[in-house]
Write a sequence for this structure.
């Protein structure tokens, strides 16, 4: 069975359906999922869902879009929440210079503060990255010791060359619906270049809906379409992709049972 390492049932469009979505996980070939926070309120919702359901875990953190909302209250909450055995990572945190919803200097500051926080809490990080690959690489190299508990680049959209640089930092690479898009020209090479022990799968639902459901909401069950695509790109049997990615998810996110 698969693990969706990046879902947002905390999103208002899915929150009301969360109980039913989680209830059908087994028949949807899903062993576990991680709801990822993007601000204080969504992190709290992730935490609450993780307390309610066995196969649901949570990450808490502030997305670069929301970096301007970061404050001590949120960080204090993340610190205390992280003691819980269902909180598997700090995320999603990072840089998004495509949308620039928060000023770039604030994004960078808040990313580094949360990287530091994750390290002090002995947790891995889930990184969101768009249009700031070189800067992120530089920041992570400068702060390599803060990655002692690992990290994943979610919905990795960079080049093969960049992937090789990030790989030197022992990061994981997570792929979602974007690898099924028809215009994803370099995606087969990027997925193929990912070391098999660093490969993760995700949906990022309700965003990033895979083919053939594009234009509609995304759901955790569609991770099966992502797994099939990863199997075809790597030339590995689907069963092998399932085994590898589930094992990798449990290696990085150690609290997943
Ligand atoms: Zn993201
Ligand atoms: Zn996300």
């Amino acid at each position: 069975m698969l693990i969706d390492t990046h879902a947002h049932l905390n999103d208002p469009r899915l929150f009301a359906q969360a109980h039913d979505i989680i209830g059908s996980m087994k028949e949807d070939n899903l062993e576990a999922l991680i709801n990822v926070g993007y601000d204080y309120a969504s992190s709290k919702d992730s935490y609450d869902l993780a307390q309610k359901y066995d196969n649901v875990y949570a990450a808490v953190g502030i997305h670069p879009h929301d970096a301007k909302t970061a404050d001590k209250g949120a960080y204090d909450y993340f610190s205390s929440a992280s003691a819980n055995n269902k909180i598997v990572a700090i995320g999603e945190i990072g840089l998004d210079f495509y949308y620039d919803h928060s000023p770039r200097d604030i994004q960078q500051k808040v990313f580094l503060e949360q990287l530091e926080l994750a390290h002090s809490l002995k947790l891995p990080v889930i990184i969101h990255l768009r249009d700031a690959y070189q800067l992120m690489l530089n920041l992570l190299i400068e702060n390599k010791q803060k990655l002692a508990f690992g990290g994943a680049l979610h919905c990795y959209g960079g080049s093969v060359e960049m992937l090789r640089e990030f790989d030197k930092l022992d990061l994981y690479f997570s792929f979602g619906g974007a690898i099924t898009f028809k215009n994803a020209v370099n995606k087969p090479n990027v997925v193929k270049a990912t070391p098999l022990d660093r490969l993760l799968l995700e949906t990022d639902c309700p965003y990033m809906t895979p083919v053939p459901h594009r234009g509609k909401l995304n759901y955790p069950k569609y991770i099966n379409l992502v797994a099939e695509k990863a199997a075809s790109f790597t030339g590995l049997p689907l069963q092998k992709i399932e085994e590898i990615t589930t094992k990798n998810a449990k290696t990085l996110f150690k609290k997943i049972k």
